[in-house]
Amino acid sequence: MTRLSAITPSDRAHLGNHLGAVRHWARDGHPGDLYFVSDLHAMTVSYNPARLRATTRELLAVLVASGIAPDRLFVQSDLIRELGALTWLLECACAFGEASRMTQFKQKSDGQAMVRLSLLTYPVLMAADILLLGADEVPVGADQRQHVELARDLARRFNTTYGEVFAIPRAVMPRTAARVRDLSDPTRKMSKSAQDSTGTVFVLDDPDLVRRKIRKAKTDALGRVEHDPAGQPAVSNLLEILAACRGTDPRTEAAGFSEYGPLKEAVAEAVVEELRPIRTRALELLSDPAELDAIRKAGADRAADRAAHRLSSALRLAGVG
Ligand code: TYM
């Protein structure tokens, strides 16, 4: 059984990525799992090449520091030739209407002066990621589920039209922290691309900055501490973060607090402790280029080996290659 998932270096990794994804990848390890930094996906909106390179490296360091075995990691662009080829085959199996229905496309393209075509076809590249490496399970948060559904549909369609080559993947959701919300605006998920970063805790933020951001977090006007995501979204978000860090339940945590101040202090300390070892190890890796370069090179070779047979079968079945 192969599990595969990824994180996009559109900006630095944040607490939502950590609690909702990376932490589970590190803990629920299966022998065949693969995780990668999806740098090609960061190119679907305006970006800075030097910064993309630096953020990709930083994310690779964060994944290693989070406890994912280095032999399960790679960087997406190291497979750009294979992925480019498969994306084309899958674009030829995907309807325009199917791609334009994606919720994330509608959200991300809304109000943009120039919408890159790659923003529309990005879920097809994501399908290529998933299908190229034969993933059976794709752990993702709620925001990415629809894209995994598209990968399933494309795999089935390709298999029935041209011949059996792809495993049919399914999305699996993390049990806890599937959606960490922005600290300043709990109606939105915590996101790398938020305009204002005061509501986003980054994994490599200095501990004092983490404390400051959490102390400034929005609260609800009711003055009570209850886990009630609809009625008290801000406080419920803080309780969910606390429970995820402590491995408890948000309702149980709520019973321990009657005021917002102590709740925020507890959340701040829990988050600082959760991130401390990751920050230390990631900074160490970032200061030693040789170790990280070796991890990246070995990951690229392994992933390319795993992709080769499936890609040549798919090309042959499609009547090319
Ligand atoms: P990305 O980089 O947006 O997010 C990486 C992972 O973090 C989860 N996540 C969150 N979980 C909880 N709360 C949040 N606020 C939060 N924000 C993000 C996401 O659900 C995701 O699991 N397109 C993907 C990366 C990708 C991929 C793939 C994933 C590329 N190819 C193939 C699976 C399989 C993305 O941009 O994730």
TL;DR of this structure?
The chain has helices at 15-27, 49-65, 80-91, 96-100, 103-109, 117-132, 145-162, 207-215, 233-246, 250-255, 260-286, 289-317, and strands at residues 4-7, 34-37, 73-75, 137-139, 170-172.
Structure characterization notes:
It is a single chain. With 321 residues, this protein is mainly alpha-helical. It folds into two domains: 4-178 and 289-318, HUPs (Rossmann fold); 207-283, Tyrosyl-Transfer RNA Synthetase. Helices cover 54% and strands 5% of the residues. It contains twelve helices and five strands. It has helices at residues 15-27, 49-65, 80-91, 96-100, 103-109, 117-132, 145-162, 207-215, 233-246, 250-255, 260-286, 289-317; strands at residues 4-7, 34-37, 73-75, 137-139, 170-172. The strands form two sheets. The protein has a three-stranded parallel β-sheet with strand order 1-2-3. Strands 4-5 form a two-stranded parallel sheet. The longest helix is centred in the C-terminal third of the chain and has 29 residues, at 289-317. The mean pLDDT is 94. The structure holds tryptophanyl-5'AMP.
